């Protein structure tokens, strides 16, 4: 790897590490904070997560198209960095007081900030990193691995800091954001000529009509069916810490053990990010997507059958296998089945946006299910949904034999 290429890889890896460290510090124990410190019930917490999803689904298409138009310029990343910096003050001085005054108002404000900063912001950063990795010739998964390590580093301490004072985690989030901004300042923009040669034209020539045309492609809707199934993983993770800590006689011990479990899971996930490109290159992008869906179905359904902390911990750790394969296969699928110039739009709309649409619908339903029939039965219903849609996707997704050039993916014969 050339020195200039190594510099971009190192700085982008650092940006992903700091982004995920900030996200994890502020958000990994948010359901525990809302339940134990603020006193929200499952349904009320579900409203907050639904607000996050609604905000993210509005921001993600916008972020995707803006980043595709910007190409390799960093304007959007600077805006996201400033939002990350505000995380500590927001949660402590704005979000918490609003929840005490009015739950609906607090949920709306919290959802607006978290959705725009983290759930939409990560898609922009990941798609930017993936685009640079294709130009400079390094594997996206090896850079994304550092994001997982950032999350693991934060969650390792999150449970202990939470028991001391939850605000410490929020201040750690802002501290990490300072480093994010410093690294972004050091990151030089890749020459646009390299992008033009790779992306079949100038990003600046993209029109909104190009992005809208995706909705007329059958292969785009086939991808949506798959993403609808795997979107359950976000809903599953939202209130999992509450269920996990309830399996311990001492809730504080459960909080701390969840921090260790989540840290260990994401540490394994980082290793998975390193290995996933080899697996996906071997079995193909479509099979990689289907494999991740089947593992997810097993994880969610198995969590419903688990009767103790050890068994459910094993189910949770399957996420370290499933997520790396899903992310790597998703990027390889969208850049080989669609116009690569629209990779950010496809990732943020076809994957992240649809995930949030589903989460906005399923989050309050899942929260109500937790209150009404319990976590275990709700998990089994969610697991069956993932399995059914993954099996259907096996017939709908485009296989490896399809090598249609991106420039002809918008033929009229393909339009519904």
From TrEMBL:
The chain crosses the membrane at residues 12-34, 46-64, 76-97, 103-125, 146-164, 170-187, 220-236, 256-276, 288-311, 317-334, 346-367, 379-398. NCBIfam families: 2A0105 (TIGR00882), PRK09528.1 (NF007077). The lineage of its organism: Bacteria, Pseudomonadati, Pseudomonadota, Gammaproteobacteria, Enterobacterales. It is found in: Cell inner membrane. It holds the Pfam family LacY_symp. This is MFS transporter. It is a multi-pass membrane protein. Keywords: Cell inner membrane, Cell membrane, Membrane, Transmembrane, Transmembrane helix, Transport.
